[in-house]
Amino acid sequence: MRRQPKARSTKSKSRIDRYFLDRSCTDIMELYRGNVYNHSGGYDKFLLNKALRLKEEEHIAEVALGRLRKEAEWMRRQPKARSTKSKSRIDRFYSLQSMAKKRARPASVELASKVSRMGNKTLEFIDADLAFDQRVILKSFSYEFKRNDRIGIVGGNGVGKTTFLRVLMQLQNLDAGEVIIGETVVFGYYNQAGVDFPPKVRVFDYVKDILYANDVPDPKPIKVLEQYGFETEQMYTEIDRLSGGEKRRLQLLEVMTKDPNFLVLDEVTNDLDLQTLTLLENFLLDYSGVLVVVSHDRFFMDRIASHLFIFEGDGKIQDFNGNFSDYLDVRREKIPEPDSSSMNDTSESNGSSQGHQRSNSKTAPKKKMSNKERKEYESILEEIDALAARQADLESSLVSGKLDYAQLSSRTEELASVTTSIDEKTNRWMELEEMYGS
Length: 438
What we know:
By secondary structure, the chain is α/β, with parallel strands linked by helices. The longest helix is centred in the first third of the chain and has 35 residues, at 43-77. The protein is built from 13 helices and 14 strands. The protein is globular. It folds into 3 domains: 2-101, no CATH class; 123-342, 3-Layer(aba) Sandwich (Rossmann fold); 371-436. Helix 5 crosses helix 6 and helix 12 (371-398) packs antiparallel against helix 13. Strand 3 (27-32) and strand 4 form a beta hairpin.
């Protein structure tokens, strides 16, 4: 991807931050199945161009496949070719065979997963408290999930987003309060830590065992693997030999085969290719169960989550009705948030008997900004943008293959430092903009 700032220079970025790509790139270079494709314009233009190209490739492959069937019959009957004409036809056969093999995943393919029946009771937090050492994660938190909730979890690193998901999944006990789970809830949990796959097991065999273990009727491992973008040769490869992104796809496949009606996704967009991401987004847009998502991919969050839990630290969780862009717009316009309330305030029901919030505590009055804090607030977003640009430069240089050992070590350390600074400044920005809204 090429970015052209005010200075006359060319920069390349290797990222799947799609809002970043759309804002900053004038050209996108796509690496796909061993080929390089150049696209003029931002991310939206890239998606359109790629869709048109794949459609054309699919048409060419379909035509080649039809001709290949006829030529295959001729090849079966043809004795050893001796004439130039016969040899030419044989060469044409192998050329058609190669074209047919390039057939992309059919455009009609969708991620397949049913949603198990959900009863009237979903999941409810009642006066939940949780802390580690001096760090408060939850404080008098109460919420009853509705059957169509699509909740995004937002907040800086270290505020407890993943811990909250672990409580949901009964992998972490509360200090006080309770979590009540309906009898018909079927969880699907995509853990950002990944899965410890068994060694020396082929992808095909692993998926076959998953399908049988989940009592999938008429299990067809090959069809399922194709839906998740696995080529034939990959299906018979040992899992240990897959790339990080391919293992993530396999992990996602395993989650979806459980037919969950309560789907919990922790950084699911990390390491997934754009085609799989698009398939996943389309599936989630039609998903009828409860969805809880943690992701740093704002494009993904904006499409999928219509309701936010904003973790502000010290056990404070704000409930916002809208997506992340809506939340930022409200803050930047410096007006009160519509349909928004602190989850630690006493509040009315979220919607008849389907959801409510309870708390006996009251939020302390917001602190006014000092002049120094106001100046900090006005400049901190620019600082975060500058750090993000440096982070992208470092990431690109680390995968360029042009650095010696000393440079790799130095830039790896700098990347860790820059990433930490981004997290710290993001947390600070959230604190300041909370004051600014007062």
